[in-house]
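Hey all, sorry for the wall of text incoming. These are the two entities for the joint prediction.
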Amino acid sequence: MKNLKLKSARAGRDMSQQQLADAVGVSRQTINAIEKGDYNPTIRLCLAICKALGKTLDELFWPEEP
Amino acid sequence: MSMERAIGFVVGIVAAAVLALIARKIVARRGGATGEYDERQQVVRGRAFTLAYAVIMVYLAVWMVLRNVELPFFNHPSSVLVGILLSVTVFVGYSVFNDAYFRTSDRPGTYIALIGAVGLLNLILGIRHWVRETTLEGRLLDNANLMVAAMMIAVMACVVIKLALDRRSEAN
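and here's what came out:
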């Protein structure tokens, strides 16, 4: 499942995938895989992404109610 | 194993270790190889290792069966090396195509140059061996350098194709 909330939060901060990747210490491809839903990050990486984007875990990673 | 071969074997391992250390220093000095693989890359590399392990297990199972059929290739010691090289190629290929071969700080260009240099060295030694030998068995089966060169070419092809695919997707 694609993580559109992460993608829009990143775009809202005017950050590229590479910039976010550098900020949290992973490769650009890893950020791309998370946004595409191809990879489920660990809680540690989720927290690092939340801190970098100034969002909470719920705002970025909690699935929306159907 | 004769004493001469045993000494050659030990010298070869030591030389490979020294060359690997030098290569690591060069890569580190040119701005990379100090970082670690990120968590997704570690998962992918674990999968690549499992796949490579399965490849060598299947190869050895086939090898054991065909060895009893008495096919010339499978009764030659080089046939085991082919299995190892195949397994290594699968590991590297899977890692490369899933963006888990290079660390974030690595420069793929440096690796291509290193792989190319080792491949070329083996290719030259392999061709030299081919020219010196007179039988097809001697030229092909006793020619470990040529086999390693083939693996290096396959690995380099994987890296170059992946880089081209990445460039194309970035352009789109």
